[in-house]
Amino acid sequence: MSRLVTAESCYYQRCLGCYPQETEWHGSPVECHPSNWVSAQWFHNIGHLPPTTDSKIPIEYRCLKMVATPDNKSFGNTVDVIRGCVPRPQVDSVCLGLVAVERARGHSDARCTICNRNNCNAAVRIDAMIATPIAILILYYVLR
Asked: TM spans, by residue (predicted)?
């Protein structure tokens, strides 16, 4: 019997206009709950109330990490980083919303990634398309 893997805890961080050294800290791990869902409204200071649910059915969560860099470097080498919990059914819409808001803010290099294990949104993700050839080359030179 296979076991369903779902995030119960994710790193939580909202760092907008931060310098790279400020993003080395991954935020704090928090238990996923409707009160701390990530939303595109996090960019506004008007105070967005979290969604509520009266459902007795457990909510399946995923961890999110969104990183965006500005096109205009005159403000310095800053970056926006958002980490947090997202309900599984809303993953696509939240990522698309965050990337759209970032692009509207002049951050065309915006990437949103989702993972499904506890606190999995802290690590830097290496793209498999790049990591595989590098690993093969290293093994070739080590084992020859």
From this structure: 122-143
